[in-house]
Amino acid sequence: MVGLKEELLKAIWHAFTALDLDRSGKVSKSQLKVLSHNLCTVLNVPHDPVALEEHFRDDDEGPVSNQGYMPYLNKFILEKVQENFNKVEFNRMCWTLCAKKNLSKSPLLISDEDAFKVWVIFNFLSEDKYPLIIVPEEIEYLLKKLTEAMGAGWQQEQFDLYKITLNTSREGLSAWELIDLIGSGQFSKGMDRQTVSMAVNEVFNELILDVLKQGYMLKKGHKRKNWTERWFVLKPNIISYYVSEDLKDKKGDIVLDGNCCVEALPDKDGKKCLFLIKCLDKSFEISASDKKKRQEWIQAIQTTVSLLRAGSPPPHKEARQKRKELRQKLLAEQAELERQMKELQTANESKQRELEMVRKQLEAAAARAAEEEKKRLQTQVELQDRFSLELEREKMVRQKMEEQVAQKSSELEQYLQRVRELEEMYKQLQEALEVEKQARQDEETVRKLQARLLEEESAKRAELEKWHLQQQQAIQMTEAEKQELENERMMKEQALQVAMQQLEQLELERKEALEQYEEVKKKLETAANNTRSWKDKVAHHEGLIRLIEPG
């Protein structure tokens, strides 16, 4: 009911704004009474003469006061409206009141009847704010629908140029400007009046009368079973069929709901392209002119039933609502962007003020700094004069100090030279200690080598004695074994000779080791002597160091 109320208010607004004003610049009460009476008549609302007279009484509480006409319109008319009135008659009554005053006098490509239908379409597509306008997006939608109905091609570039011109001057068009735009033929060039009129009528039927599909088909009777041609009109919840397309003689309705279904039938009774509409109480057999028409009607009816099951509005109303929601979303985003821009601008202005304040503070600080610099320079001159005298005295004191420092530096240089000599002696002593340590290590190595050679010599002697005992035992063997023992003896003698040679070699190596030991012993004695000599020198220098003290 809220959507219905908004649609009624748009048409009533046109009628109300077309009423004549009296000398005080207000609508006369007599005109408002006539308007209210006509509205009650076309909307099938019961008249309430008492309430009408009470609201329009001759005092300061009437519709021309602060109370206005809207409270009466809402309370006594719109709130009582049901959906049992003729929308076309209601719109025509409002159109009659406003068309004469607002319709352009220049010749148009469309008739007055077509202008009336464009006006009703405008009320359907216009924004829900007053004064009513239709935005460029809805203008484009309407012109595309008309172009499609005329069978022409849509000129997007032409509309873009027109849209640029429109956006530079205002937000949208009024109803009368939209009628002038369509009636001028700017977007229907090459089309005659009849084609344009048919396109307007088709769009009017779809958007205003909720006609989803219409056309001639054959219907089978329920009683006589004969086939009769009828003009069918499909709406969101009903299929009406008439004798002809002028809609004057209505023959019946097929009420649709979510339980209805439609299906194709095979050819029979000499009829082709049949389909069946099943409802709860009745079924209807219909014959289309061809298979394409049959498929179109089946598809349209199935879509309508699906929308009824889902509780959705007709496609064009749902599309209009989505376009409005999208525009509202874009407007909200734009408003948010503007708010953010204002906040940024405010923040920027605040920053500018802060920068200006900082600049002034810097200028004041610079002025104070200049004054302080002037005072500082004056003070510096005074200090320079005072420091000049002190500097002369400082020079004399410094000269004396430099002489003392030179003397102390000479003493320090001598002390450092002695320290360097001592460090050199310590290095040489360290080297001698390293040589002594290496000699002791060499002596230990030679001792180990000599012990190893002695052990090897003892082992060889024990082996020789063993071989000698074996040889004595072999001599005592029998004569039969004598030859074999002789051979073994010869081999053992050869082995003994080799062992004797090895023993001799070991004796030579032992002698060499003794010689190396004697040599290492001499080196060790020499290193010990050197160590005692360096110790004496170190002791002597330590005595010297104790005698020298820094200046």
Question: What does it look like?
Answer:
There is one protein chain. A 7-stranded antiparallel beta sheet has the order 4-3-2-1-7-6-5, covered by helices on one side. The model is unreliable at 60-66 and 547-551 (pLDDT under 50). It is built from 13 helices and 7 strands. The chain has helices at residues 2-17, 29-42, 49-55, 70-77, 87-102, 112-125, 136-150, 156-169, 175-183, 193-207, 291-310, 315-475, 482-547, and strands at residues 213-220, 227-235, 238-242, 250-255, 261-265, 274-278, 283-287. Strand 2 (227-235) and strand 3 form a beta hairpin.
Order of helices and strands: HHHHHHHHHHEEEEEEEHHH
Determine the CATH topology of the domain at 1-102.
Recoverin, domain 1
Mean pLDDT: 85
Structural class, by secondary structure, is alpha+beta
User: What separation lies between the terminal Cα atoms?
Assistant: 116 Å
- What's the CATH first level of the domain at 1-102? Mainly Alpha
Radius of gyration over all CA atoms, rounded: 64 Å
- Please state the overall shape, judged from the principal axes of the Cα atoms: elongated
The CATH architecture name of the domain at 1-102 reads: Orthogonal Bundle
Q: Which sheet architecture does the biggest sheet show? A: 7 strands, antiparallel
Percentage beta strand: 5-15%
Low-confidence stretches: 60-66, 547-551
Question: Approximately how much helix is present in the residues?
Answer: 55-70%
| Number of distinct helices | 13
Number-wise, the strands total: 7
Strand order of the largest sheet: 4-3-2-1-7-6-5
Subcellular location: Cell membrane; Cell projection, Lamellipodium; Cytoplasm; Nucleus
Pfam family, one: EF-hand_SWAP70_N
GO molecular function: DNA binding
Keywords: Cell membrane, Cell projection, Coiled coil, Cytoplasm, DNA-binding, Membrane, Nucleus, Phosphoprotein
